[in-house]
Specification:
There is one protein chain. This protein is α+β, with helices and mostly antiparallel strands and 453 residues long. The protein has two domains: 187 residues, no CATH class; 244 residues, no CATH class. Helix content is 53%, strand content 17%. It contains 18 helices and twelve strands. The chain has a six-stranded mixed beta barrel. Helix 2 runs antiparallel to helix 14 and helix 2 runs antiparallel to helix 17. The longest helix is centred in the first third of the chain and has 39 residues. The two termini are 23 Å apart. The model has no long low-confidence stretch (mean pLDDT 89).
Length: 453
């Protein structure tokens, strides 16, 4: 049996049409699996980039202990004070796994246009961190369209404009502010007193990009600041479309009259280190007397949408893979059954010449494996060609939970294709083994005198 693989390959030439049909069935089935797996790879990368960078949480989000749920309700007690912020930043600076760290302040307030106000979720970002995030290679690769503003430029482009803010597209429509800062330059100024109850309101509101922010400070008093709308954008989540505003961290701290931060986001060189970094940071700061809650990006408490969506997609992909695997196994099972029935006398002859049951079984299983491998190679090629065609087609779709549309892109990954092949091949080999094993167990006389050979 030293040349068993060569003999098995030569045996496949006996019924070329049937074997070709079986190989093509395996090829098309595997091509479908390649497309599904590589599409899932694209979705995971897109959602992870949004969760980590565009939702400004980092690979690890560091709150004061219990700050995840209580920082908004009791900010004075459960937000990070300057000393705690510095401890976290100092630890991140000395850990080589951390690319950079940034402080954030969350809050709620009222966005106004001089005629009315709308409730708004506010996020204060350090301008230097915003610049690094927007120009990060991961953002450019996976979420370039979502990261670009609809109008204008992000706040980091206006270093001399400390009151610069970016407003979600839906909120800008509610505020009736169609122009951003660059578009409003040179227009005649709006009157000091707007005619809010007349038709002139729309024209007057559209002459500038000025908006107001009002909020309750942490000590309970009312505060307000003027802001200049420099950009509109689509948030990475649909829920924020009608009420999200990004400001500088300093401006939001001024609005709330505080020097605290809600959390610190740690952005890592390798996302696989998130769990370890969160664990090490928590332990190190605990020794220093600071109790924190460090959550990796794949923690459901921190990112329920990302975790839930990936769990759902994983279940769907697993079910489809199992279904295709079953269909392919039945295809090989049927083809090998016919092959065995046609070669019953041949099997009897091998047995009579001294071949053991295991050797005969192994030879025919090799034939099935060669046939399957041929189908998988063709299927991989078909899948890759189909992915190129899909990527070049320019098809766009609206992903759930994300405003707007994005291009449909299939991103092949070698490890996904290898994993799918590792799942499919044993199943097809097992199907062939089941058929052959049942035949070689028959009495030698029955095999030699069979009328089906």
């Amino acid at each position: 049996m030293e040349r068993a693989w060569a003999v098995a390959a030569r045996n496949l030439r006996r019924n070329r049409r049937r074997n070709l049909a079986t190989a093509l069935a395996v090829a098309f089935g595997f091509a479908g699996l390649v497309l599904i797996g590589c599409y899932g790879n694209r979705v995971e990368q897109f959602l992870r980039t949004n969760a980590v960078y565009l939702q400004h949480s980092g690979h690890v989000t560091v709150f004061l202990e219990n700050g995840l749920h209580k920082a908004s309700a009791e900010p004075e007690k459960f937000q990070l004070k300057p000393a705690a912020q510095q401890k976290i930043l100092a630890w991140a600076a000395q850990d080589r796994r951390v690319e950079f760290a940034a402080r954030y302040l969350r809050g709620v307030g009222l966005a106004g246009n001089g005629c009315g106000t709308h409730p708004t979720r506010l996020l204060g970002i350090e301008p230097s961190a915003l610049q690094r995030i927007l120009h990060h290679s991961e953002v450019a690769k996976w979420s370039d369209e979502i990261a670009r503003p609809v109008k204008g430029r992000w706040m980091d482009a206006y270093p001399s404009l400390p009151q610069a803010v970016a407003v979600s597209e839906g909120l800008s429509l509610l505020l009736q502010k169609p122009r951003v800062h660059d578009e409003a330059v040179g227009l005649p100024p709006a009157p000091l007193i707007l005619h809010c109850d007349t038709d002139q309101r729309v024209d007057e509101l559209g002459r500038d990009a000025n908006v107001q922010l009002a909020a309750i400070t942490y000590d309970g008093s009312l505060n307000a600041v003027d802001a200049e709308m420099v950009a509109t954008f689509h948030p990475s989540e649909t829920l924020g479309e009608d009420g999200t505003m990004y400001t500088s961290l300093a401006m939001l701290q001024t609005l709330f009259a505080t020097d605290q931060a809600t959390y610190v986001g740690l952005f890592l060189h390798n996302e696989k280190d998130a769990q370890a970094v969160a664990r090490d940071l928590t332990a190190a700061l605990a020794k220093d007397g600071l109790a924190v809650e460090a959550l990796p990006y794949h923690d459901e408490r921190s990112k329920p949408y990302y975790v839930g969506t990936m769990a759902f997609l994983g279940a769907v992909a697993g079910f489809i893979t199992l279904l295709v695997e079953l269909v392919l196994a039945l295809t090989v099972l049927g083809a090998m059954t016919l092959t065995i029935l046609e070669r019953t006398r041949e099997i009897g002859t091998w047995r009579a010449l001294g071949f053991t049951r295991g050797q005969v079984t192994a030879l025919i299983v090799r034939e099935a494996l060669i046939l399957s491998l041929l189908g998988l190679c063709v299927g991989l090629l078909l899948g890759l060609l189909a992915s190129l065609a899909i990527n070049a087609s320019g098809i766009r779709f609206a992903p759930p939970g994300v405003p707007g549309t994005i291009p449909l892109i299939i991103v092949p990954a070698a490890w996904i294709c290898a994993l799918q092949a590792a799942i499919v091949i044993p199943g097809l080999g097992l199907a062939a083994w089941i058929v052959v094993r049942a035949q070689v167990k028959r009495n030698l006389v029955d095999l030699l005198t069979s009328q089906t050979g």
